[in-house]
Design the sequence.
């Protein structure tokens, strides 16, 4: 799910970002130029430059400037520049190499150089010259850049003249790939947990903004915009955003169900359906339930039969995705039954919001959280509702959804950092990419001999592996963790079933996911081959 693209800059908005990135790098980070009030640095050769840029969405996160007009900047620093070069040809000069900090030690630099080489070949340039900062000499060399001449610049900003040819780049590619693979694994563990999920750099940046008062006009406007954004994404009429967890969002739903007449019907075929039953019992709701063994489907016919058997049933409460297995309920079918029989529907969408498209327009209440499918930090509970909330003095203040509605979701202390982060994360939701990646992962795991629960009709965000008898889910998960792969296995219900899970939530890079699967596959194969005796990969 790699959203970074590489292109030649053509738009005015891209050039403005280039000037800002130029300032951040060569004024604030490497002190080559004087500060200015505009916080922009327009290169003296800007009109002659061609810029290769890396864009994550609309944001320019990396750049290289190419220029073939002589004299080069190196001509003014090295007398008789050609005497240092190994061959005659048609050189160009590469300058202003900059990658934003959040994207360093990733493939962005490599991909920029690949795009640079393509451009040079297209234009007939045989060599690219660069002044490489001494801070990154090792990386430049791994890329195929060759040093020549003396060090340049002053003490705080030293540079080494270097050149790159098609041949040197080609020879270095495999070595560079190995380097980046090792760096990636050393840099961070790869997380496939359903929470906390991997956080995109843009979301981290939004979260890191200075906190502001939850009573300020700025914060109120930000939260209003977030709630509108949530409603637009789901089709819901209203959304309340509360500081808390998914458990809180379901308690808020249970508190509202106290106001409905008649009995309810709760569906459960896994851990989280059973938790809804526990919520209902704690609020002393009257209800029937359809409870089946884990991962056993609950059909629309069974639900309709229960409704016809008990005319007092006036509402249904169900999870959308049973996170303990990945089972995905037929939400559209259940919505149809509720409409046909005049019932209210409540949905726990904690593991599906942001993972699969939701249509909550006719849903009475639905719960979710910020830290799973939406790809943000945990800490915000969200409740969608179709109608205005009824007033009730019997509900504890923190569970009174009416209080949140009346105060624009800010009756109590709120977090601007979490709101900023979620607002940014929602912009990055990509259902098609999640589905495509999930299908590829399922195919790879099955080919490796893993037994999976369900098929592509299950949630694309949760893939459950049923381990063979004799293979311990705890030991398998521990082994993955030792090799830098965090899978879900430590929950009581997973250990009890001897299952492990791969959750594809948050900022998942497709290439990194597929590369990490090689490690999971090797661990699995090693246990099969060695009779489940664990070894370090």
Sequence:
């Amino acid at each position: 799910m790699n959203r970074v693209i590489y292109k030649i800059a053509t738009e005015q908005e891209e050039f403005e970002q280039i000037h800002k990135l130029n300032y951040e790098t060569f004024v604030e980070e490497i002190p080559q130029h004087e500060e200015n009030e505009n916080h922009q640095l327009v290169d003296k050769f800007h009109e002659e430059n061609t810029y290769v840029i890396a864009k994550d969405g609309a944001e320019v996160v990396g750049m290289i400037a190419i220029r073939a007009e002589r004299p080069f900047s190196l001509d003014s620093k090295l007398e008789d520049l050609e005497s240092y070069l190994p061959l005659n040809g048609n050189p160009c000069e590469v300058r202003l190499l900059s990658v934003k900090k959040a994207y360093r030690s990733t493939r962005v630099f490599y991909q920029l150089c690949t795009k640079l080489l393509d451009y040079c070949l297209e234009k007939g340039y045989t060599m690219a010259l660069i002044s490489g900062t001494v801070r990154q000499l090792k990386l430049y060399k791994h890329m195929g850049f060759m040093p020549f001449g003396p060090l340049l610049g002053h003490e705080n900003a030293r540079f080494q003249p270097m050149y790159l040819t098609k041949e040197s780049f080609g020879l270095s590619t495999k070595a560079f790939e190995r380097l980046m693979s090792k760096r990636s694994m050393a840099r961070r563990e790869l997380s496939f947990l359903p929470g906390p999920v991997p956080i995109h750099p843009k979301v981290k940046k939004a979260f890191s903004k200075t906190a502001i008062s939850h009573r300020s006009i700025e914060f109120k406007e930000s939260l209003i915009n977030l709630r509108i954004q949530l409603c637009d994404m789901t089709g819901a009429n209203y959304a309340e955003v509360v500081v808390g967890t998914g458990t809180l969002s379901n308690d808020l739903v249970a508190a509202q169900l106290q106001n409905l007449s008649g009995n309810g019907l709760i569906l459960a075929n896994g851990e989280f359906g059973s938790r809804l039953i526990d919520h209902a019992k704690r609020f002393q709701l009257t209800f029937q339930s359809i409870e089946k063994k884990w991962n056993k489907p609950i059909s629309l016919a069974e639900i309709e039969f229960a409704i016809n058997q008990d005319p007092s049933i006036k509402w249904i409460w169900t999870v959308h995705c049973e996170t303990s297995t990945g089972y995905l309920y037929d939400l559209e079918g259940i919505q149809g039954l509720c409409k046909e029989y005049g019932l209210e529907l409540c949905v726990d969408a904690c593991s599906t919001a942001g993972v699969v498209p939701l249509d909550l327009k006719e849903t009475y209440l639905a719960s979710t959280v910020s830290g799973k499918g939406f790809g943000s930090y945990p800490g915000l509970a969200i409740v969608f509702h179709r109608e205005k909330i009824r007033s009730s003095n019997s509900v504890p203040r923190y569970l009174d959804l009416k209080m949140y509605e009346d105060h624009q979701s800010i009756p109590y202390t709120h977090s601007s950092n979490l709101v900023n982060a979620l607002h940014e994360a929602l912009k990055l939701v990509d259902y098609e990419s999640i589905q495509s990646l999930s299908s590829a992962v399922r195919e790879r795991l099955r080919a490796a001999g893993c037994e999976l629960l369900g098929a592509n009709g299950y949630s694309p965000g949760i893939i459950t592996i049923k381990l063979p008898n004799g293979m311990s889910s705890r030991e398998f998960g521990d082994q993955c963790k030792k090799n830098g792969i965090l899978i879900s296995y430590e929950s009581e219900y997973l250990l009890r079933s001897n299952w492990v899970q791969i959750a594809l939530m948050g900022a998942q890079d497709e290439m990194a996911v597929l590369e990490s699967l090689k490690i999971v596959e090797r661990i699995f194969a090693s246990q099969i081959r060695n009779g489940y005796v664990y070894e370090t990969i």
Remarks:
- The chain has three domains: 4-187, 201-426, 430-529.
